[in-house]
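Dear colleagues,

I hope this message finds you well. In preparation for our joint manuscript, I am sending the VWA domain-containing protein (Oceanispirochaeta crateris) sequence together with its predicted structure, so that both groups work from identical material. I would be grateful if you could confirm receipt.
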Amino acid sequence: MIHFDQPLWFLLLIVIPLLLIFRAKKRGGVLYPSLSVLPPVKSARVRMLFICDLFFYLALVIFIVSAAGPYKNRGESKDYTKGYLLQLVVDRSGSMGSYMDKKGETNRLDIVKAVVADFISGDDSQLTGRPNDRIGLISFARYADTMAPLTVSHDIVIDLVHSLSLAKEDEDGTSLGDALALGVARIRSYQQKAGTGSSGAVLILLTDGQNNSGNLDPLDAAALAAQEGVRVYTIGFGGGFYRNAFGIIQEIPPNMVLMKRLSQKWPK
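The corresponding structure tokens are as follows:
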């Protein structure tokens, strides 16, 4: 839909019919003693004289419309003042490579990337997306890394989510505490620079393991989040299949499945 920045300029359109009336009254003429001296048919030049007037009024209309400042919104209008500061913290440790199907084609990290992308942009079904949130991305294994600061450029965040890969052997591990603390620090830094113009700050942790690396205990990081007013929601991944020493894909025993939720519901 087209909008106008200065719509009051359209009041000048009233001038056009006034000019037409004025020019009609002031139109000149030549007196002839008899109509017989006039040519029986108007020449092509005479018949085309109205084009000059047509272009004059057309140019006047174009000038008025241009002065009104037309513009068109591209895409959906978003109100970021009503959104959350949403920090995503994604585990990419080696255990996230466990298969989730018997064919060994999809692992836990693949599912996380697909679910997170749908969560951000929506899936045209149950998920409506997070259009009004400022979203950041942190990935972690033995070390925690900021992939994207809190931003309204959701397409970039989704691209970075899809680019995540499993940690190599020399960087493998699960530093839950460090990752949580980094997420809280990023939120706090954003609030200090840009103000707290959002409804709240939320950190979502997606992991399949327990803390075994890093310098900070997860409970200490959780206490830091509580101190800063950041709500933490943990989604645990477990189950699936693994390839044993003989290359055979087997189901992970139920007693090895980690499924722990620290939250009861997503904030409305």
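For the figure legend, we might mention the following. The helical segments are 15-25, 44-47, 50-67, 108-121, 154-162, 176-194, 218-227. The longest strand covers residues 84-91.

With kind regards,
E.M.
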